[in-house]
Amino acid sequence: MGPALLAAFLFSWSIFHSDLSKREAREGVPVVNMMRGGNIWLPQINPQQLRTKPPLFYWSGLLTSKLFGEVSEITLRIPSVLAGVGTVFLTTFLGMRQFSATIGCLAGLIIATCWRFTYLGSHARIDMLFTFFITLAFVALWELSRGEKKSLKWLAGLAIGLAVMTKGPLGWLFPLLAIFIFSRLHKPFSMPWAYLLALPLAMAGLWLGVGLMAGGEEFSKMIYQETVGRVSGSEAIHIHPKPFYYYIPQIFGGMAPWSLFLPFALWHGKKYQDVPWKFCLIALATLFIFLSLFPGKRGDYLLPLYPMGAVMLAVFFSRAEESLTFPTRIFMGMIMLLALVLGFSALLPELNFDSLSLNSRDRWMAQLLY
Asked: Which residues on adjacent β-strands are paired with residue 299?
């Protein structure tokens, strides 16, 4: 529980200090419309324009707003805070189940203090809720792969379905593709594919059916563009085109400061060939490679792989003391120190927080840390 309590503090202490950012406001508009009696099945920016995402995140914002009696910055951010804390807890639990209590706690502390994870844990954005359901699915899939509690097939299918209802087809493709690859590379095991396929499809199908009845042609065009159009790089939607290597620096920036040790963790893990470590590696690599193949890229899309990266880093730190030679540890320490010195020397002399493109809350946090 320690890492989750730390995450609750880190994610919640800053949600009271600013207005919504531009991206947060974009996610808040459909909640306002729902609160005013708009269609709860079709998130809308206005009566003529649909939001291009499924409704689950907006339902969570609507629920907290109903509980507090109004839509506000706080009520829109609470779902991300809760999802972030839940993801830290699940990461801790996964590390404990796969390795040990020590590694689980280390993994929870690592993910709770990754820069981009902490940032999104206090912002009204879809990514954190999506990451929570993806992580929940992987926890259930890991237990199923070990032959534990076959009733978890319902939890795995439900988690995948909720991920789809949060951000679309990636919530279905990513965990199923990863567990399929894992089952082929590792010894075959019984996986309840019917539940993993049918439950998410039934949940998404129900929403699509209601959406088609309520939204008609506009809804069908939106669904087409968000699936076929996004994959093909259609000019009809804004897909943030980036080069194929875009995510390499993004993962190092997003998981900072721990990402400095990620190459060492990957190299170190090859020696042990643990089945749990392979599970985390396959999950991380599947999402990373899968997303790199698409023309549209954003750094926040990598958030669901952070839990797996945190577990792998925790394994590395836990075993480093007994397996790494003294010169190697000195070398790693020098790299870390050099990176910090160069980073601060490059940024701090000319750092002017008022000139940065930050909202008041983020500027307040940066000044406090400075």
From this structure: none
* Gyration radius (Cα) of the chain, Å: 21
DSSP-derived secondary structure for 3-49:
HHHHHHHHHHTTTTSS---HHHHHHHHHHHHHHTT--SSS-EEETTE
Domain ranges of the chain: 2-320, 325-370
Residues in Cβ contact with 107 at an 8 Å cutoff, skipping those fewer than 6 apart: 3, 91, 92, 94, 95, 307, 310, 311, 313, 314
What's residue 115's pLDDT? 86
Distances (CA, A) of 267 to 254, 262, 271, 315, 320: 20, 9, 8, 12, 12
pLDDT digits (tens, 9 = 90+) for 252-295: 888 888 888 888 888 887 777 788 999 999 999 999 998 888 87
In angstroms, rounded to a whole number, what is the distance separating the alpha carbons of residues 91 and 279?
14
Integer angstrom CA distances of residue 357 from 202, 264, 302, 363: 43, 34, 22, 9
Percent of the chain with pLDDT over 90: 31
H-run or E-run covering 50 = strand 49-50
How much is the pTM?
0.85
CB 251 within 8 A of CB 297: no
Q: How far apart are CA 317 and CA 338, in angstroms?
A: 20
CA-based nearest residue to 303, from 126, 178, 145, 161: 126
pLDDT in tens, 8-28: 888 887 777 667 777 888 888
Q: How far apart are CA 309 and CA 284, in angstroms?
A: 7
Euclidean distance between CA atoms 191 and 125, whole angstroms? 33
Nearest to 9 by CA among 91, 116, 122: 122
- Scan for tokens 């599947």, then name that residue: 286
